[in-house]
UniProtKB/TrEMBL annotation:
InterPro entries to which the protein is assigned, alphabetical: Glyco_trans_2-like, Nucleotide-diphossugar_trans, TPR-like_helical_dom_sf, TPR_rpt
Keyword ATP-binding: no
One term of GO molecular function: transferase activity
Source species of the chain: Gottfriedia solisilvae
Keywords annotated in UniProt: Transferase
PANTHER family per UniProt: GLYCOSYLTRANSFERASE (PTHR43630:SF2), POLY-BETA-1,6-N-ACETYL-D-GLUCOSAMINE SYNTHASE (PTHR43630)
Gene3D superfamilies with a match to the protein in the record: Spore Coat Polysaccharide Biosynthesis Protein SpsA, Chain A, Tetratricopeptide repeat domain
Name listed for the protein in its UniProt record: Glycosyl transferase
Domain Glycosyltransferase 2-like as annotated: residue spans: 9-139
CDD domains the record matches: Beta4Glucosyltransferase
Length: 362
């Protein structure tokens, strides 16, 4: 069954977002039919900014639980579907057009719409790291958010994928908020589930607590109850911890362990290439970077993809490796391939100038 057009409630939780909230709401206000803003304790002009766009602004007593706040926001929605965003997210004009078209074609049989979430970009504005999130859900299904930190929306049923995307523009430095919430939970004796163990380890990595991160990545992996994609990510992130600690051997072992959960991924092949490059073992570095160029991007498997590791990055590193071995012609070929993916990358452009000078002199 299809109506003339479905309606969408935008539900957001915010705190001290006066610098970015207007940008976010302006980008989405022509798409959604209702905006629900839940403020968790702002001390700036966030609520006043929100009230320029909606009368549905509510206070929520913060209890160190993101799911509780998001579920409260969802409870205030009244339209057919619910869309969620964070304050530092933006819907670009191109993606707004795609979402407006989605509203016209979406049928009531659809329970949720998954969309890409672009988190970082290259010099040309192309996404370099993306994930996939269930971004729009049917209100009557009463889907719930799970987890007090790094919460996720538990969705099932008829899920479709849209080619529209949400753009994340991070404007704040990394906060210790999530780390402190986890540490307080652990100190209080709260038992962490596998997903929390993984994300607590991520917070430790992000804040330079490498030994603690390694401890919790191992707890997560040893328990054997994690999602395979998180297992793969954990192996790579644990390798990053060891690299920061200067332990190349254990970094290598961590990367190789990821292959027990699935075939080689470009991210960990590039990590292995980097490990050998740091040790001036160019032949082994080349072997891993070459594998990265042949590995397919696992778009149907993983919601977390660093596209650079499947495109320009391994070729750029192959250029460096061959150059250090004295094979400048092969080095140039790989830089040219890297340029086909990222023509304005500073390292690529520097290499182009170098090779132009080198071969012109010859």
């Amino acid at each position: 069954m299809k109506k003339d057009s479905i309606t969408i409630s935008l539900c957001m939780i915010v705190k001290n977002e006066e610098n970015v909230l207007e940008r976010c709401l302006s980008s989405v206000s022509t798409i959604v039919d209702e905006i629900v803003i839940i403020d968790t304790g702002s001390t700036d002009q966030t609520k006043e900014m929100a009230k320029k766009f909606t009368n549905c602004v509510y206070d929520f007593n913060w209890i160190n639980d993101f799911s509780a706040a998001r579920n409260f926001a969802f409870s205030k929605a009244t339209k057919d579907y619910i869309m969620w965003l964070d304050a530092d997210d933006v819907i670009t004009e191109v993606n707004a057009e795609k979402l407006l078209e989605l509203k016209k074609t979406l049928t009531e049989e659809v329970d949720a719409v998954a969309m890409k979430y672009h988190l970082s970009f290259d010099e040309d504005g192309n996404p370099t790291f993306s994930s996939v999130r269930n971004r729009i859900v049917k209100r009557k299904r009463n889907f719930k958010w799970i987890g007090f930190v790094h919460e996720y929306l538990e969705v099932y049923g008829n899920i479709i994928h849209s080619d529209a995307a949400v753009i994340h523009h991070k404007d704040k430095d990394s906060s210790t908020r999530n780390l402190k919430i986890y540490e307080e939970a652990i100190a209080s004796g709260k038992s962490l589930n596998p997903r929390d163990k993984y994300y607590y380890a991520n917070e430790c990595l992000d804040h330079g607590k490498y030994e603690t991160a390694i401890e919790w990545y191992n707890k997560f992996l040893d328990e054997g109850k994690g999602w395979s994609e998180d297992n793969i990510q954990a192996c790579g992130k644990m390798a990053d911890c060891y690299l920061n600690l200067g332990d190349m051997d254990l970094a290598t072992r961590s990367c190789l362990k990821s292959f027990t959960y699935d075939g080689p991924r470009g991210e960990n092949c590039c990590r292995l290439g980097y490990i050998y490059l740091q040790q001036n073992d160019y032949h082994r570095a080349i072997s891993w970077y070459k594998i990265a160029t042949f590995v397919d991007i696992p778009e149907q498997k993983s919601p977390f993809i660093n596209t650079a590791c499947y495109t320009w990055l391994p070729h750029l590193q192959l250029c460096l490796s061959y150059s250090r071995l004295g094979d400048q012609e092969t080095a140039k070929k790989h830089n040219d391939i890297a340029a086909s993916f990222a023509p304005n990358n500073p390292s690529v452009k520097y290499n182009q100038a170098y090779f132009n000078s080198l071969f012109n002199e010859k």
